Amino acid sequence: MLFCRLMPTVFLLSATMLVSPALAAVPEPARVLHHKTGSAAQAGHGYVDSEAYLRGIVAVRLGDDLEAAQAFRKALQADPADADLLRQAFVRSVMVGAPQAVELARVVDKTPQDRSVISALVLGDDAAMRGTWPEAVQYYHRAGADPMARLIVPLLLAWCQQAQGHADEAIENLLHVPGSGLMPFYTLHAALIAQVAGQSDRAGALFVQAQKAMPGYDMLLTRSHAAWLWNHGQQDKARAVIRKLVATDSILGMAGPALQAEIAHYPVTSAREGIARAYVLTAFLLRQQAREQAQQGMEGEGSALNLFQFNEAARLMLGFALAMDPTLADARLMLAEIQDDEHHFAAARETLVRVPPQDPLAMVATLRLAVLETTNDHPAEAIPLLQHLAQQVPGQIIIERSLGNAFSQTKDWKAAIAAYTRAIDLANVQKSPDWTLLFLRGMAYHEAGDWAAAKNDTRAALAYAPDEPLLLNFLGYGMVEQHEDLAEAEQLLRKAHALDDQDAAITDSLGWVRVEQGDLAGGIPLLEKAAEQTPEDPEVNYHLGEAYWRIGRKTEAVDQWNVALGLHPSPADESLIRAALQKAGVPPTPPAGAGSPAAQPVPAAQPAPAQPVQEQGKHTP
Question: Region Disordered: start and end of each range (predicted)?
Fold first, then answer.
């Protein structure tokens, strides 16, 4: 895990670096031919094991690289001459660190036109793991022929030189890479090489030099420098360096005690571990570039590299890292983040549970796992993990917040309120009040039926964030629900609408408060706009139906209520809708097909994360 920020131009990769030809696209099922009998169909010069091939396709789309690798290798057995199957089996095997990856790389390497950066790196890494460093150098040089791969190859070659007893040459080469934006990282690896080679004084000077050049906090650099300081009698300064690192990130703060306990140990002690860290760096840079591209609006089918391709390349680099060092927690945390971003929950969970429990970052992995369980509708699995963390590292706001979120998912409002209260108290003690915690507790109070407490928390949150539309809408709409001070409620909702007039929930709230005050002409257009924006929100449809009923458009009102009833409303909303239909004297008749898959509403939003996020069409997250 690297904590720094680079300029977006540092590592801009072309589409040909890693994703072409091996990763340019997910394999398509159309290539599997229909056949009458058996599981293999003739396709051109060979046969396709269609069952295995289709399993591979499904596994890729589910993010299960292990299953994909096994399936494509089985399909390849039926047609060893199929170049596409060979590439897919090879790349997926690399991603999971399968031993077959080396054998497949040798097959790929036999045909010059099929050779790639990937095959060269696999064979170079295999040679490095066997300790045949001159052979590794040959393959890494070949990978360096790619103009983009040249950014990482100096690190790989330097570690090969160190392993062969040429540390001085390796250090000089890294410190004189021409025109590279990666100089802070090259300097860091030069320091690591000096330390591994026993050149302790030189390592210390290079750690300081790397720190001055680094554009932010870097985990590897900080831990390495702290270990150097500790082992040179500067214990107080070493501990201060670690404290400064963990203070930059609330999640990393949980690992503070474990990092302090391991402060004397260098995170890199061999060339093999150094190579693994080089691959983690590459994955990090790919992720950074993907984020920069997305922020600049460059993502999409027309971009040079879309987010999927960036993530595939990053996952590949992390596969290289974990093949060199399977215990590397930094790599596993980053890989799980990518898998979670791609909605591969099972794969992300499996990645996180493999973080060694003795690693200083194990608690970070446990928190990530608990949050993953909560946001994927498994809060019952998250709660014991979080409670265990709270016992191990008490006084952590992020743990109590996450517990509150998990309890909220299980609708244990009393426990959620207690967890949020502990988080709020901790924030106050640390003199860092957080309006989002007040809002989360306010929502829990509201769900528990204590509107007075919910209102107090929301007003307290507004004192810190007076222009937050989320808070203004929640308070204003809650007041409308309670039929209290509708004039103030409208004032709050008008302000929220002025701040965000594209939010359907706010538009609906403003329309509803006007209807409740008798302003049907002013309220109905707002409700109609909200219904257009979120046609599958039962609450919005109920409001629009009620407004139509009050203005005399009774047939349209009944239609809206029946639509709302067919959208699986909450129990409270369902009671209101059924009461409205009973008032109209008609039986509830949801639209035709309301229970069919085609008529189902979109899935509910994921549970509230650390920062509350308002889903369009919902008055509360």
Answer: 582-621
- pLDDT for 590 equals 56
Q: What is the 3-state secondary structure (H, E, C) of 20-39?
A: CCCCCCCCCHHHCCCCCCCC
| pLDDT (average), residues 254-275 | 96
Average pLDDT over residues 207-221: 91
The pLDDT-based confidence of 60 (bands split at 50, 70, 90) is: confident
* CA distance to 58, 289, 422, per residue, from 16 (Å): 25, 15, 51
SS3 538: helix
CA distance 389 to 383: 10
274 contacts 162 by C-beta, under 8 angstroms: yes
Buried (b) or exposed (e) across 397-406, using 16+ Cβ within 10 A?
Answer: bbbbbbbbbb
Q: Which of 290, 115, 604, 53 is nearest to 104 (CA)?
A: 115
pLDDT for residue 322 is more than 60:
yes
If you average pLDDT over every residue of the chain, what do you get?
A: 85
pLDDT at 591: 53
Place of tokens 């703060």: 253
**Residue 18 token pair:** 């890693």
Confirm if 423 and 404 have CB atoms less than 8 A apart.
Answer: yes
In this prediction, residues 298-325 reach a mean pLDDT of 75
The gap from C-alpha 579 to its chain's centroid, in whole angstroms, comes to 43
Higher pLDDT: 198 or 78? It is 198
Name which of 256, 253, 259 is nearest 426 in CA terms.
253
Cis peptide before 21 (omega within 30 of 0): yes
Question: Distance between CA atoms of 222 and 266, rounded to whole angstroms?
Answer: 10
The domains of the chain, with CATH numbers, are 50-355 (1.25.40.10), 368-584 (1.25.40.10)
DSSP symbols for 243-293: HHHHTT-TTGGGGHHHHHHTTTS-S--SHHHHHHHHHHHHHHHHHHHHHHH
What does residue 48 show for φ and ψ, rounded to 5 degrees?
-115, 125
Prediction pTM value: 0.81
pLDDT at 16 over 80: no
